[in-house]
Write a structure and sequence with these properties.
About 50% of the residues lie in helices and about 15% in strands. The longest helix is centred in the last third of the chain and has 15 residues. The relative contact order is 0.19. Bound molecules: adenosine-5'-diphosphate and zinc ion. The site of adenosine-5'-diphosphate has 17 residues, from α2 and α3.
């Protein structure tokens, strides 16, 4: 399947994407994961992105499109892909449309995961992430803690609170979402690709996607 996952930070895009990869071998492509990996590895891309990310600002569209243009042409994308955290602005959505046309790739749909703001705020402040850039497993201190406190179940690396998950950066990220990313819901509605799912459980989101793909 070839999907875009839309939704505020903390809506569950990453969790849903990871669950969908197990269904049919589609790959998860998270621009946030790619950027955090680049920052930790200290690459040129990481150096350019770091300050924006720390402040909860968006990284410039040109940098993101450079990453995605290469990534979408890698062979593992042939089976399908789940775009998690991209596109994030109207110019990115327009550039993606042009890129997919050029590559002859057709999207199945854009899924808008719509979760109430209280739930989002609670999730983001209690979210913890594996610090290993190759892993980036997601935990929650309340609902899904690692078996040993502060240690990733999957790879044993420290589980940490992201630097952009302080209260200040979180509220800034939510504002940025409203201003820059929420308009994509209309964009994909006009393209005839939108599926909105109001659900706070990832399983319910997966079911709605499966149903839509089948029908
Ligand atoms: P979340 O969805 O929880 O906010 P992500 O992991 O998707 O977090 O992104 C973390 C940060 O990486 C963002 O706040 C932003 O600085 C940057 N980023 C990720 N994807 C994009 C994108 N498509 N365009 C611009 N910046 C991005
Ligand atoms: Zn890990």
């Amino acid at each position: 399947m070839k999907l875009i996952l839309l939704g505020a930070p903390g809506a569950g895009k990453g969790t849903v994407a990871k669950m969908l990869t197990e269904l049919d071998g589609s790959v998860q492509i998270s621009t946030g994961d790619i950027l955090r990996g680049a920052v930790q590895a200290g690459t040129e891309l990481g150096k350019q992105a770091e300050a924006y990310m720390k402040a909860g600002d968006l990284v410039p569209d040109e940098l993101i499109m450079g990453i995605m243009e290469k990534r979408l042409q890698e062979p593992d994308c042939e089976k399908g892909f789940l775009l998690d955290g991209f596109p994030r602005t109207i110019p990115q959505a327009e550039a993606l449309k042009e890129l997919l046309d050029r590559l002859g790739i057709k999207l199945d749909m854009a899924v808008n995961i719509d979760v109430p703001r209280e739930v989002i705020l609670d999730r983001l402040t209690t979210r913890r992430t594996c610090s290993n850039p190759e892993c980036q497993a997601i935990y929650n201190v309340k609902s899904n803690p690692p078996k040993v406190e502060g240690v990733c179940d999957k790879c044993g690396s420290p589980v940490v609170q992201r630097e952009d998950e302080t209260e200040e950066a979180i509220s800034h990220r939510l504002e940025t979402y409203q201003e820059k990313t929420a308009p994509l819901v209309d964009f994909y509605d006009k393209e005839g690709l939108l599926l909105t799912v109001q659900a706070t459980s990832s399983e319910a989101v997966i079911d709605a996607i499966k149903q839509k793909l089948a029908g």
